[in-house]
Specification:
By secondary structure, the chain is of the alpha/beta class. The protein has helices at about 50-55, 75-85, 100-105, 155-165, 180-195, 220-230, 230-240, 240-250, 255-260; strands at about 5-10, 15-20, 25-30, 35-40, 65-70, 90-95, 115-120, 135-140, 165-175, 200-205, 210-215. The chain contains nine helices and eleven strands. The strands form two sheets. A seven-stranded mixed beta sheet has the order 7-6-5-8-9-11-10, with helices on both faces. A four-stranded antiparallel beta sheet has the order 1-2-3-4, with no helix packed on it. The longest helix is centred in the last third of the chain and has 15 residues, at about 180-195. The chain is globular.
Length: about 260
């Protein structure tokens, strides 16, 4: 039996930060809690954690996504995936922990690129410079503490600020944890308040993660229908099972989407 071995451990201001490795899987943990991020050292751009793969459903909705905002860096899984599939895209990342930023580069192979900007700051205080220049097509929010969702997720003003950074046809993808039902409902209510209820719920199969897709304007009905009919090229492009994700999206939001993206 192969055991995890600790290759880095440091006490930060709020919690321990630990990097462990088991064969070719390297993971970031905050103490002994859940895995915050994982990387396959043999295939670094592969998304190892299920929720990160489901979160990529957001890439299907803008017609030509090439400007991305990420709140929360972790080991850089989403960044490596986006750099691999969208090498020329503009990618801005906000991360609260200087230690996490350092580890993403030293232990998780996050590259230095001109089109990749890593900002050290609190997601709750998104720098004004994020709103300078063209708006983003997709924003990914994945901010957690050792065992709970981070406090900005419960603030409608936080979600409103992120939505204002998006293009009119952009989409916001937020990773929430439904294991704590009460706190999950509070976070979902905050997001719904910010976007006027323009959200789609995507529960990750056999996990407690729930991805919420939110929109600064009307939910893109025509785009959803087009994506459903032409899903195979996108699955080949990204190597992800988008057909299954869209099927789950339809079933979970059946009252809204049944007539839009067809039967399974």
């Amino acid at each position: 039996m192969v055991m995890e071995r600790i290759i880095f451990s440091e006490q930060c201001d709020e919690h321990p930060v630990v990097v462990v490795e088991e064969e070719h899987l390297r993971c970031l943990r905050f103490g002994t809690g859940a895995r915050q991020s994982c990387m396959d050292t043999l295939n670094p751009h592969r998304l190892c954690l299920a929720y990160t793969r489901w979160m990529m459903t957001a890439l299907l909705l803008p017609p030509r996504p090439d400007r991305f905002l990420l709140l929360g860096l972790g080991g850089g899984s989403l960044v490596r995936f986006l750099l691999h599939h969208h090498p020329g895209a503009r990618i801005d990342v906000v991360e609260k922990s200087a230690t996490v930023i350092r580890l993403a580069r030293s232990h998780f192979g996050l590259p230095e690129r001109k089109n990749l900007r890593i900002l050290h700051g609190d997601a709750a205080e998104i720098p004004d410079l994020l709103r300078i220049g063209p708006p983003y097509h997709v924003a990914f929010v994945d901010i957690f503490g050792p065992d709970c969702m981070a406090s900005p997720l419960f603030d409608p003003m936080f979600h409103d600020t992120v939505l204002r950074c998006l293009a009119s046809d952009g989409v916001l993808a937020v990773n929430l944890w439904s294991g704590d039902r009460w706190r999950f409902l509070l976070a979902r209510r905050a997001l719904n308040t910010a976007c006027g209820g323009r959200t789609l719920k995507l529960p990750v199969r056999r996990r407690s993660n729930v991805i919420l897709l939110a929109f600064p304007g009307p939910i893109p009905k025509k785009r959803l229908r087009t994506v459903r009919k032409n899903i195979l090229p996108r699955e080949r492009q990204y190597g992800l099972d988008f057909g299954r994700y869209l099927k789950r999206l339809r079933r979970t939001n059946s009252g809204l989407l049944h007539a839009l993206i067809g039967r399974a």
